[in-house]
Every structure is written in structure tokens, then in C-alpha cells.
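Incident log, structure service

09:12 report received: a user says their structure output differs between two submissions of the same chain.
09:20 pulled the input from the user's history:
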Amino acid sequence: MDEFDIARLEREIRQYLGLEPAQLQFEFRELEGLTRLDLITVNPRHQQSFLFRYESGRDKVECLEKMLAYVRSYRDNESSYTLQWRARGDRELQTSYFRAHNVYEALDKLYFGRDLNTITVFSVVLNPSS
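09:34 re-ran on a clean worker, output below:
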């Protein structure tokens, strides 16, 4: 595994998405004999993290190559959703935006890694395509 290739691919993905290093986390794990990459975004305003996308492959480099191919084309292949939600214990309503194939996938990205009872969703809107 080439650490140089991993760093280069992570940088390319970050730059393509226009995010700062603190706003994007690359989380790798072994799952059923494959490597899985969960690409997590962190909102700088409220510090909540959400799943952007996951990919599986033989190793980290393959996962990152698949992720880079995805970020180059996802705007053309997925719909945009606006979700309004509030975390348990907060008073402020939050708005987040997700790209997904359907509303269920958008909600999965919002709830990724959380107990379903920690967030209350108030609305999910499919945004008009441009």
C-alpha cells in the first residue's frame, strides 16, 4: 500500500469537493474481507458529522480511486435534498443538504453512526434540478 498514493487521492477528493481538512474525514475499516471507506463530512457551523458516501475495495487505494470517480460525477447522477432537523437537547433548527438517489438514502446519510432518537427530522425536500 502506497502512503503517497493515499495522501494524493485524499487531497484530490478534498480539493474537488472544496472542503478544508477539518471538514472531511476518511475512515477505513475491514469488512467481510474487503476494505471499506466511509467519507464523513463535518459541518463547521454546528460540528455535526454526516456520511457523504462509502466505497468498498481490495485496499485503501482502490476505495479512494472509486471515491474520486464518484465525486467527479455525483452531481450529475444524484438528486439534491434539503433536510431540516434538530438534535436532541438543542433548540435551534438545522438545515443540511445531501445528494442521494432517494429520500431514504438521504436520511441514512443524516443518521449515519447515530441512534435514531438523537435527531428529529422536521422536513425532507427534493430540490429542483438545475
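09:41 both user submissions now match this output. Likely a transient worker issue. Closing.
09:42 reviewer note: The chain is about 30% helix and 40% strand. The beta strands are 24-31, 34-42, 49-57, 79-87, 94-100, 119-126.
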